[in-house]
Amino acid sequence: MIDHIGFAVSNYAKAKAFYVAALQPLGISLMMEIPVEVTGDFAVSGFGKDGKPFFWISESQKPVGNLHIALLGSRAAVDAFYKAALAAGGKDNGPPGIRAHYHANYYGAFVFDPDGNNIEAVCHAPA
């Protein structure tokens, strides 16, 4: 079981705005911000729900991308995530739908974030 994940982004403000919009349909919101004055190196944003941040982004001067993250939600939330992510500047990497090659009820949608990371929302429940 994963407790949390964190990764660097090339444009912190742009990525933060993207994730605020894209994660909202999944019930995930911005919960914490830690400024560079505290870390000494980079700003950090923590997104989560139920009082716990578990999805973290931070500034970076290094190349980023090629990360895959799947976040759980209902089928309606998967659809809403996809629309919100595209509206926030994400790029399509697979619209909402069944991915039977994984299993009969695998309903997912995929977008690339501003750094090219493959962000997925998925539902495993039957329709």
Architecture overview:
The chain has 127 residues and is α+β, with helices and mostly antiparallel strands. The chain has a single domain (5-123), classed as 2,3-Dihydroxybiphenyl 1,2-Dioxygenase, domain 1 (Roll). Helices cover 23% and strands 36% of the residues. The protein has three helices and nine strands. It has helices at residues 12-23, 36-39, 75-87, and strands at residues 5-9, 29-34, 44-49, 52-59, 68-72, 91-92, 97-98, 107-112, 118-123. Strands 5, 6, 7, 8 and 9 form a five-stranded mixed β-sheet that branches. A hairpin with an 8-residue loop joins strand 7 and strand 8 (107-112). Helix 1 packs antiparallel against helix 3 (75-87). The mean pLDDT is 93.
What are the main properties of this structure?
127 residues, alpha+beta, five-stranded mixed β-sheet, four-stranded mixed β-sheet, 3 helices
Rg computed from alpha carbons, rounded to a whole number of angstroms: 15 Å
Indicate the CATH class: Alpha Beta
Helix content: 10-25%
In the predicted model, the low-confidence regions spanning at least 5 consecutive residues are none
Provide the CATH superfamily.
2,3-Dihydroxybiphenyl 1,2-Dioxygenase, domain 1
CATH topology description: 2,3-Dihydroxybiphenyl 1,2-Dioxygenase, domain 1
Strand content: 35-45%
**Structural class, from helix and strand content?**
alpha+beta
- Biggest sheet: strands, sense, closure? 5 strands, mixed
Domain module tally: 1
- The counted number of beta strands is 9
Overall pLDDT score:
93
Helix and strand element order: EHEHEEEHEEEE
* Beginning-to-end CA distance, first to last residue: 26 Å
CATH architectural group: Roll
Tally of helical segments: 3
Shape: globular
